[in-house]
Design a protein that fits this description.
By secondary structure, the chain is of the alpha/beta class. The chain is built from 15 helices and 13 strands. Helix 5 links the parallel strand 3 and strand 4.
């Protein structure tokens, strides 16, 4: 079934204005259903959890239900595996501080040179504690992470491999399940940054057998908040960062100093509402389906639609001799998401976005916190790349509007 774009766009209040939003990898627009859930919490249960009075009990139930829903959405075993916090950067930093206390001096950690810095810097900083940091470098010709290169890096001392699921510049989908299998064959752990993947594809932490997986809600049509998944035995084994009286077994609280943000956690129930309604509108009997089934069907339709968006823009860019696409040049939904970056011969990247801005189309230039990748590809000389990052609420008409503007620029 084709995506019902009229239904989709009505769910996002910001889309009723004049602007075209194509900087979604930096932050997506927020669902009305998310806004409604946040408002519901603040207006009817804005109290501290854990008290005996009724409203406090309601508040606690709402926050617990949010954790349960997030666990179901990403296919975690239980809500105790869901840690929430202010950002992916902070959650991975907390993880690195806690997990490293279970490592030994001279243990090895492998990072890439193409991740967002959130999943590099937190691990590289551990070098000061005596751990050896190895770098899995992107192949400059294929612009991909080669499994053989990773295999050559892993030794008996390797404890962790940190990798992105989808590059927020290249848009390329990395084979996380294959990577996890290789890492586990060497008795190491894997931490995956799923920020650029989560808006476009359904997450399945059990199917991929990842040990840790993080993403940000504000890239997934929600508030500025984030989630870290961790396998329960691993979370139990490492120390936390909360108060001394918080027990080692208190999951996920020991990783959430000050507790979660109650209203933002509950707000993500609105994303679940949206996926269920999306499935219903697109012919799925939501009453007879659980959240995972609804989400699975929704993301299948989203994948197909986003591939059409990618194809329209990539066909244009590929037709321009002066344009170099930085990443996967095809629109295959199995190979990439609609995060498309490029540079133009004899033009600085910032000069392009300045001209596009005037037409009320929001795109972006820069390194997007993947500074090591930009440097490795010598793209700092262009002031980084131009990035057009679309999601399923964008339209072909919006893509054509951008193409018309770009065509006059180069």
């Amino acid at each position: 079934m084709d995506l019902n774009i009229d239904f989709v766009r009505k769910q996002f209040p910001a889309l009723s204005g004049d602007w075209v939003f194509m900087d979604n990898a930096g932050g997506s627009q927020t669902l009305q259903s998310v806004i409604d859930r946040i408002s519901e919490y603040l207006l009817t249960s804005d109290v501290q959890l854990g008290a005996s009075y009724k409203i406090s009990q309601v508040a606690g139930e709402r926050v617990a239900k949010a954790a349960q829903s997030m666990a179901e959405l990403i296919h975690a075993q239980k809500p105790s595996e869901i840690v929430m916090g202010s950002s992916t950067s902070l959650l991975i930093r907390i993880l690195s501080l806690c997990l490293s206390q279970t490592f030994q001096p001279s243990d090895e950690i492998v990072v890439t040179n193409c991740d967002h810095e959130a999943n590099i810097g937190a691990w590289r900083d551990l070098e000061t504690k005596g751990f050896e940091i190895k770098e899995w470098k992107i192949n400059r010709d294929s612009l991909s992470l080669e499994l053989e290169d990773l295999k050559a890096l892993i030794t008996k001392k390797t404890r962790l491999v940190a990798v992105t699921h989808v590059s927020n510049i290249l848009g390329t989908i990395n084979p996380v399940k294959e990577i996890a299998t290789m890492v586990h064959d060497h008795n190491a752990l894997i931490c995956v940054d799923g920020v650029a993947h989560a808006p476009h594809r359904l997450i399945d932490v059990r199917e991929w057998d990842v040990d840790f997986y993080a993403f940000s809600f504000y890239k997934v049509y929600g508030p500025h908040y984030a989630l870290l998944y961790g396998k329960e035995p691993l979370l139990l084994d490492m120390p936390g960062v909360n108060h001394f009286f918080i027990k080692q077994t208190d999951l996920p609280l020991k990783f959430q100093p000050g507790n979660v943000n109650f209203e933002l956690s509950y707000g993500m129930m609105g994303f679940c509402d949206y996926l269920s309604e999306f499935a219903r509108i697109h012919g799925v009997d939501s009453k007879g389906s659980d959240l995972r089934q609804n989400a699975s069907r929704a993301f299948q339709i989203i994948k197909k639609y986003e591939q059409i968006l990618s194809a329209r823009l990539l066909d244009f860019l590929n037709s321009k001799p002066r344009v170099r696409i930085i990443g996967e040049k095809t629109s295959s939904g199995n190979a990439r998401v609609p995060t498309i970056s490029f540079v133009v011969d004899k033009l600085m990247s910032d000069s392009i976005t300045e001209k596009v801005d005037k037409h009320k189309i929001g795109i972006r230039y820069g390194h997007f916190y993947a500074k090591r990748l930009i440097d490795a590809l010598d793209l700092d000389k262009k002031n980084g790349v131009v990035r057009v990052s679309m999601v399923h609420y964008n339209t072909l008409e919006e893509v054509d509007r951008l193409i018309q503007v770009l065509d006059r620029i180069f």
